[in-house]
Amino acid sequence: MVEMASGEAMATWLPIIWIGLLGTAIAMYVVLDGFDLGIGILFPFSPEENDRDVMMNSVAPFWDGNETWLILGGGGLFVAFPLAYGIIMSGFYLPVIIMLLALVFRGVAFEYRWVAKPDHRWWDIAFAGGSITASFMQGVILGGLLRGLPVKDGHFSGGMLDWVQPFPLFVGVATVAGYALLGTTWLIMRTTGEVAAQAREQSRVLLVAVLAAMAAVSLWTPLTDPRIWERWFTLPNFFYLSPIPLLTGLAALTVWRGLESGRDSTPFLGTVALFLLGFAGLAISTLPYVVPPTLTIWEAAAHPSSQLFMLIGTAALLPLILGYTAFVYWTFRGKIKPGEGYH
């Protein structure tokens, strides 16, 4: 009886722990890789070579390490929720492949741009194109998950192009705008002169666009899904969850006031808070489903012994990843000036 109760407890709590770890990995990836993807998105709007050099140098020590969180998220999904992994990969096979190819192409362009000077125009195009494409596909995948995947007998039952729908495409465009906002506020914090001044102007426009997109998604999802409507707009849930939109408005106001007052760090920190609150809102709308609207985290979970085995390894590695990330960001803190860099 004791062993049975222990097994039931593990089957209950391990998926919760794993979904928390996956949520943390995804949030870390979105914030950390979001701003360097944003740098690539902003490239077409900064035609001066010296400005582009400063922009790339501001993320040079961090960009490849930031993608560690994407690997952790994908690997964790495969280990802890293999059924969900199979369904999600089947439903978004094309967007995932395109995203990964774009990230690879962008990484190659990042390195080769420096050694190809002065004939590096095509590498600039590749860097910008890879960043925009990867960001857009990440948003499409998110939008497709929120919209829901058709599942029959534990398998994806839709078509290869089911993700080509208005809502996923809209979320893809919104994600590009959001990463661009992270990029501009990062440049404000990390650069000086013309680059920082231009980023401050761009941030105002992007902040309005991101807030409009967040408002649209916040209305679109409950109006098309009764489950999400019930989660947010029935009593007493409405009162319990009301701090989320209120804090989102406060974060947006913090970003705006930081831009207007000439502060360097406040806009970026406010934008990070904006993203985390948006992520929390999406999690509230979705959980406990890992494949909305059919599979919960418990239905999609691997055997408890597999989850526990991999959790031990993850618990050992996670402090190392966090420590390395903190060390790199602390070591390369401060502003980047024209002519300075790490190449």
Instruction: Sum up the overall morphology in one term.
Output: globular
Number of helices: 15
**Architecture per CATH nomenclature, i.e. the level-2 architecture:** Up-down Bundle
The average pLDDT score comes to 86
The CATH topology, please? Formate dehydrogenase/DMSO reductase fold
- Total strands: the figure is 4
Q: Describe the largest sheet.
A: 2 strands, antiparallel
Report Rg: 21 Å
Helix content: over 70%
β-sheet strand percentage:
under 5%
CATH domain class: Mainly Alpha
Q: Which series of helices and strands comes N to C?
A: HHHHHHHEEHHHHHHEEHH
Spatial strand arrangement across the major sheet: 1-2
Structural class: mainly alpha
Give the CA-CA distance, first to last residue: 62 Å
Give the low-pLDDT segments: none
Whole-number total of structural domains? 1
SSE topology:
Blueprint (H helix, E strand, L loop, with lengths): L1 H41 L6 H11 L3 H4 L1 H13 L1 H10 L1 H23 L5 H27 L3 E2 L2 E2 L9 H25 L2 H32 L1 H8 L3 H5 L1 H19 L4 H21 L2 E3 L3 E2 H4 L3 H28 L12
Helix pairs in contact: 1-4, 1-7, 1-8, 1-13, 1-15, 4-5, 6-7, 7-8, 8-9, 8-13, 9-10, 9-12, 12-13
